[in-house]
Predict the 3D structure of the following.
Amino acid sequence: MKLHACLRTYLIGACAGLIFATLSAQAADPAPAASAATQAATQAPVKLAQAGNHNAAPMWRDVRHGDTGITTIKGAETGVLIQSEGNAWRKFRNGPVTLVGGLLLVVISVAILLFHAWKGQIRMSAQPTGRKLVRFTLVERWLHNIVGGCFVLLAIGGLMEIFGKHVLVPFLGHTLFSLVLQVLKPVHNFLGLVFIVALLAMIVMWAKDNVWNAIDAQWIRRAGGLLDRSHVPSGRFNFGEKTWFWFGVTILGLTVSGSGLLLDFPTFLELRSSLQLANLVHGISALVMILLALGHIYMGTIGVEGALDSMRNGEVDEIWAKDHHEAWYQQAIKDRRG
Amino acid sequence: MRTLALMLIAAGLIAGCDEKPQTVGDYRGKTDAKPYEANFGGDKAKWESTLRARNQNQNEYKRVP
Amino acid sequence: MARMKFLCDAERCIECNGCVTACKNEHEVPWGIQRRRVVTLGDGLPGEKSVSVACMHCSDAPCMAVCPTDCFYRTDEGVVLHDKDQCIGCGYCFYACPFGAPQFPQAGNFGIRGKMDKCTFCAGGPEQDGSAEENQKYGRNRLAEGKLPLCAEMCSTKALLAGDADVISEIFRERALHRGKGGELWGWQQAYGKDGAPAPAKQEAKK
């Protein structure tokens, strides 16, 4: 019971910003807070006495706002006649989350493509020397690619869940689309566990190398050299990668994982209002994570020459290391000399 | 020009993601026979009058003459 | 054309759960699924009220709006039905529904809920009307037989009314006039829109 309360607090905390938006959605449609139900339950006798007085309006108003009664039907919230939170959830999910989320997905994808067309690939500053440095060990690569692979599959499932109805159904038709989702939904729910385990291991593995230090100031000042195409010195991970690691992978990743776990075991949260909140936290943080991942995937594949090799076979050319991670390069050379 | 086209496509996609207004008789691609087809030979008026007459069974002011 | 609606007269419902039993039996609903339930407010107190509630077949159905596979549809009679073959058991309709109507055969761990089941206004589903498949998945299609939902038809006090909105609201209006009170219509505002369904007898009953 205590754990349950803690989790609810976590959920509420995780979406502090979200609550403002939900409140505005509720303002349009006067939906009460979840606590109104318990409040009204204690006041019920007064209202009911009024109802006996042929003035049932206050009682029905309370029912409209989630007043609970008793019923012989077992289960969570079966005594609630009308729950209004559902409509607030629907309005927010189908409104801002879908529209703004969809808009951002399209805009960011197009922006990345336009940027690539404009600036092209970041090339190495000289011909590769052929001398290689180990950038990622086998374990690191496997872990990263498990997390990445899971993420892509989970993202596809999640995006189809929210946008598929609008984007894919017109082409695939209801029958085929629902068949695809019938496969993807269990995949999403079970793969999430693999993702969480691999994600936690990856965070622990790379946390040390992602601690911010003085050299990052240069990267920030020169915007990573993305625009002027200069090479900014940095440690094993540059400031962009570190930001993605802490904000994208760690904070958002854990939020998505936590809310996803709660949604995976709905009997644990029980209340619909908690499930709705968990769903919104899950969806919004996942959408932001996908947006950031688009940038990460771009830089790791076609954005930077030679970057993909570091994840494919773990080795990078010395020129590449010197160009992009000079401090790390110097350290690696020093280590090699012993 | 291409940018403009891309923006238009984006706007179209986003607009398509809005909630569709719900109307009566919104079958959304499902093939369900009309209720008066199986047993009333497609005679909608007959089906409706049957239901209306039957509905009066729920009105006890009409049941007891 | 008839627009089918449910109407529960809280002044009359005696919490006998006959509607619940009728529904379960008529459609052979499996254990754990309750298409209809009776909720009593202020049990044992003066002015206690009971209400029988199931899917209200809303005009702007939240379940329909949030379903990821768009498996819901609305018939010409305004009955909200769904195609179980297209249901993925995500539970979103259950999150969104104001009345707690959508039911699932499984608890939902790892999101495995099975196919959603709910009141069909005794109108079956997309399968051929009166077929064994329809009966097995959605229950009996009484509407196609020219009958109305059994819960209302066998309600002992006629608290629960079901049928064409115009007809049942007229019955209710007449009744509220006779007794001179209890003209409030529970749930109609919620289910049938902001100004689409004012309680038919409210004004007259006050006089």
